[in-house]
Structure to design on (186 residues):
């Protein structure tokens, strides 16, 4: 399938991503994944709106023209200086987001950690977070001339202070209403 044929397909559900000329059906996420996604999205949206840093989107089509891929990341951030990459006409992001966040689930973990991470890196996405829905760990990756380097790896129950958002601190276990036992956090 060509990218033009992909753009002509009807809007979902089901939702699809476009990769190497193939259409990849997205699996319906687990309820825990969705709860975490909503909580994290709300926290990021509130912080960004208050500080006028940019905008956050949930599950929006992102066209990465340099690698001819279309993905639907769990969360996407465009800084205020890059809001022109969002098309009001088709409701999609065309070009690089400043941040992509994938919430890892058992069915997507491998693809998010390998294929998609490599594509985001190759395309030039500056920040990539992987948030594990099962254990609430966070890996924050920053693009460098040598590729993605892990800027932070945060265990469950510890505050995560994203480098992209000064003044923000997130404890995902607390936000999810979960108490992490000391042996769980090791």
């Amino acid at each position: 399938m060509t990218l033009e044929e992909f753009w002509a397909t009807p809007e979902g559900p089901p939702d699809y991503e476009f990769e190497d000329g193939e259409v990849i059906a997205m699996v319906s996420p687990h309820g825990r994944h969705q709860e975490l996604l909503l909580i994290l999205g709300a926290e990021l949206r509130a912080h960004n709106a208050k500080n006028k840093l940019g905008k956050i989107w949930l599950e929006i089509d992102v066209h990465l023209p340099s690698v001819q891929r279309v993905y639907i990341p769990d969360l996407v951030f465009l800084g205020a200086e890059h809001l022109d990459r969002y098309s009001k006409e088709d409701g999609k992001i065309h070009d690089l987001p400043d941040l992509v966040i994938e919430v890892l689930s058992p069915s997507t973990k491998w693809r998010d950690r390998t294929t998609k991470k490599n594509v985001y890196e190759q395309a030039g996405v500056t920040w990539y977070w992987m948030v594990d829905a099962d254990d609430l760990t966070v890996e924050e990756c920053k693009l460098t001339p040598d590729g993605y380097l892990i800027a932070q790896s945060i265990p469950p129950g510890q505050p995560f202070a994203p480098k992209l958002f000064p003044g923000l601190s997130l404890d995902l276990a607390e936000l999810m209403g979960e108490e992490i036992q000391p042996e769980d956090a090791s």
In short: Helices lie at 3-7, 31-51, 109-123, 172-175. The first strand starts at residue 16 and ends at 19.
